[in-house]
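Weekly sync notes, structure subgroup
Attendees: PM, AL, DS (notes)

Item 1: joint prediction request from the bench team. They want all four components modeled as one assembly rather than separately. Inputs as received:
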Amino acid sequence: MKQGRTAPDGSYPTRRATIREVAETAGVSRSTASRALTGNGYVAPPVRDRVREVARGLGYVPDATARHLRQQASRSIGVLVSDLSNPFYAGLAAGISQQARRRQYTMMLADDGGSPTVEAEAAEAFVALRVAGVIVTPVSAEIGSYLARQRIPVVEVDRQFSAGACDAVVVDNANAARTVTRQLLDLGHRRIALVIDEMHWTTGRDRLAGYRTAFADAGVPLDESLVVTAGWDVDAARIEAHKLLSRSEPPTAVFAANNVLAEAVWRAAAELDLTIPGQLSLVSFDDVAWMSLVRPGVTAVAQDPVALGEAAISQLLDRIQAPLAPVRTVLLSATVASRGSTAPPATNRR
Amino acid sequence: MKQGRTAPDGSYPTRRATIREVAETAGVSRSTASRALTGNGYVAPPVRDRVREVARGLGYVPDATARHLRQQASRSIGVLVSDLSNPFYAGLAAGISQQARRRQYTMMLADDGGSPTVEAEAAEAFVALRVAGVIVTPVSAEIGSYLARQRIPVVEVDRQFSAGACDAVVVDNANAARTVTRQLLDLGHRRIALVIDEMHWTTGRDRLAGYRTAFADAGVPLDESLVVTAGWDVDAARIEAHKLLSRSEPPTAVFAANNVLAEAVWRAAAELDLTIPGQLSLVSFDDVAWMSLVRPGVTAVAQDPVALGEAAISQLLDRIQAPLAPVRTVLLSATVASRGSTAPPATNRR
DNA sequence: CTGAAAGCGCTTACAG
DNA sequence: CTGAAAGCGCTTACAG
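Output from the run, pasted for the record:
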């Protein structure tokens, strides 16, 4: 933070200093001032020091937009997530933000609330701002191809809509889902419900696939009625979960495909006075703070959104460096945080 | 999202279209193209339509940085918060982001992790980008004066460091703290600890003041050893809380000054097998998701960070419109979400 | 070692 | 009704 000018009467200057003002005050040309300030090109050391001194005295901060316009290269990246209020996306943004700062990039952030229309608008805003690249948790396939067409590097994170066409950083959803489902099967559960939001995106598709694979591996037939689509919203999902748990033949365990759905199931179980894990076992995909605060703790696939964000920005900056390098999909494995929310099914207990 | 050009071989153009290209393709001057596209100034309707058609066909997206450079006005705002991983700040960012989009502003977001150095760097980055204004949860008094000196409108949110010198949107911390403390006193508690992170910022200062006022109002003497400074980090705070609750003369109730501290106290109580509210009553300042998920739910002052963010951006845009209007501090009141974590102290029970 | 000139992509008085 | 010119704040070959 540089010192600004203060007039003798204590008032502030009306306009921000420009390089022209710095140059005039230092008695050099704008070219020389620019070279002195950026460090590009030669300037006699005493002149350089004088120019820098003057700039500091004037509180001069170079106009990054003008610089970028001239250089045709920006130091901003665009980040587009689905819901900042969800700790998963917030963590992702936190990881990206931290790395961006470390690498001297600035972050434009937008939240599309899951809407493809808003996503498209945000993408256009990023193009207008000529960001160096975009990181997105996509809600449509269009955003990837649109940005590619506009020659803006993109990395899809969490979900992948343009596999092979653009870089991506995703979690190994299938394996993680399979692992936790198997743990439930191993405990003796047979009626394991999958509560999910949608099954077309890679996250939903792969979590569903992992769940199915675990059943297949164990040679256990799967009751398709136990795969329930519960929507996006906690309240709507809570109602669906309530119905599910009130069935005449209810599941003995639930695998919630994300943290919002896990919350919905948790609330529905409380409404029905179902004890966990006594009457119901619960596992979640995506480990968020409350899961280790409640009793019993909720066993969950821990994705580390911060690491996901960091990997995404690394990937993006690599892509900016090497636009023609082969497209890459980075697969991050996830761990399972085992807590107290699972136990053998009640019917198996003596 | 506009259609881009696709060459006959399916490849994309190498460079992004500029207004010059649009103008040439449409057979008009750049001035006319600009007028047609922006809607400023007159253009014969058929010409206007043709230009717009051409622009769409070329996938033309005007360069916002060039436009802003020319107009000396930007449509971006800078937002600087302390910790995106904390749901309070994430909610704040979500509220701001949503309103920004609605008003056709774009948001630059940075996270200073509570460091004044990082805060200063971020402020300078915002100045470099010539944002139209900044919203900040300040960690020092310098950021407000620095940005003011740079002629950039600022609104402080949540905390206030430059009262009177710049706009602010804050919660009525003193009243809310007083209310919850009084509730505890009314239940019969006398040994009510305040677990707090710091007491110099307005948030800490006013929450402490409200707590003291409630004691004074009730004519109950305050044991100063019950005001404990527990630091920023959940783990460090958990250790402090553990010590507090293990004292020979422990408190019968704890007022945690924010959500992180409430989490620390909650964990410490669990470690010590203290039942809530049987052996310990707990109230929190700042209501976050887990507090309604645990059993019993945690009684908390609910701040509505999204509303706080929305108020902040309103205030900022007003300020941008009227730079010389009197400085304003908006005080938002908070409600108390009463849940099951409080009860009369054990010693009062029969 | 330094400065004049050109130009990044826009918009906007101004002249006709 | 439209276009030529200037200029926003920078940087960078290039000439000297």
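Discussion: Chain B has a mean pLDDT of 93.
Action: AL to compare against the crosslinking data before next sync.
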